[in-house]
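DM from R.C. (forwarded with permission)

"hey, sorry to bug you on a friday — could you get me a structure for this? deadline for the figure draft is monday and I only need the backbone to look sensible"
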Amino acid sequence: MQRTINKVAVIGAGTMGAGIAGACAMAGNGVVLLDMSSELAEKAVQRLLGGRNPAISEEAAARIHCGAIDADLGMVADCDWVCEAIIEDLATKRDLFTRLEAVRKDGSIITTNTSGIPLRDIYAEMPGNVARDIAVTHFFNPPHIMRLLELVPGTQTDPDVTAALTDYCGKTLGKGVVNAKDTVNFIGNRIGCFWMLAGLHKAREAADNGVSMEEVDAAMSAPMGLPPTGLYGLVDLIGLDVMDFVGKNLKANLPAGDAGHDYVSFPEAEQSMMGAGQLGRKTGGGFYKLIRHDDGSKTMEVYDLRTREWRPAVQFELDEEHSDFTTLMFADSELGKFSWDLMSAVFSYAADLVPDISDDIVNVDRAMRWGFNWAQGPFEMIDAIGARAFAEKLEGEGRAIPKMVAALLDSDNASFYRDGQFFSVDGSYQTTPAE
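My reply, with the result:
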């Protein structure tokens, strides 16, 4: 069966669902947007139109037809793709997909935007045509800005489903489609959340050696090719409550022996912050808070995790040795030691997860670049510092060499990428797909 996507239905008009609907409408497609009531769906469209930089045009908004899930589910009958973006609750999702079977047309594609529930659990014991037509389309938020889309088929998904979604989401929506597997948190969040959660623990250890929060964020931004929020700033943006939910989901779903189990719970100071409702930007302050003065000026304060008190933030300037990760990770300073401790753990984690979460390193690197705005993915960064130097430093600390690095070096090759090719899990070099 050759499938094409012309008309789209999105079920769930929250921030994610509305954003997906808006992106499809902006691409010129007719869209059905359903929520608990048509009024909620219509309000979501108005939010897309509002603000200083609207997410959609008036012309695109006119392509979105709103309705209620209970009363208007039949509106999906002529849609080629039905994308579910409701709450992260397995029973609710299964109930919706069961109801969709009675109204969707034969051969239509159905997807879920879940990031925490295994796809196999959603379609388990459902009719065979559900297993054939279903996949995960995990957009990163906000969908009209973030490039990454993780595409995850089930074990019985028709190859035409993934082909049609890759074509539509890549060419029509302009997304960077990466192929992931039905594993917890897929690729981007599996590695990105490991970086954040491990970072909170390792930064607390570094604080005992005099490394401040400002130094941590200075190192975990421009020198690493990471966004300017750094580590603590990014957690502030996301919220400690969300990160706590992520940690609990990882604890429940990570395979036994996974290195991520060491970091699924917060350090004591962050646990106290969360208990006090000090969650981040959404509560007016987390690790940082902006103080607005009567004269119109602004100052930034930092919640010092050692003293448990607020203090003025200090602008920290990195010297040349600490300005690039290729030297920072090998610098003989407390900040250099912290940077190596965290990033070597992240690189090793990523290099041990292929092919479990992805068939190749390219999808991993692109997921981190497109989903977390890293300048380079972990395998590209290993290449930059040198796989041999990376392995030798690990060995010097009595640490294991991750399997993809070991495979690379055992094959007498020095880099994961060369001459438009990438190092494959079978030990050969394959042509790197165009972005």
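R.C.: lifesaver. The first helix runs from residue 15 to 26.
me: no worries. The CA atoms of residues 89 and 229 lie 31 Å apart.
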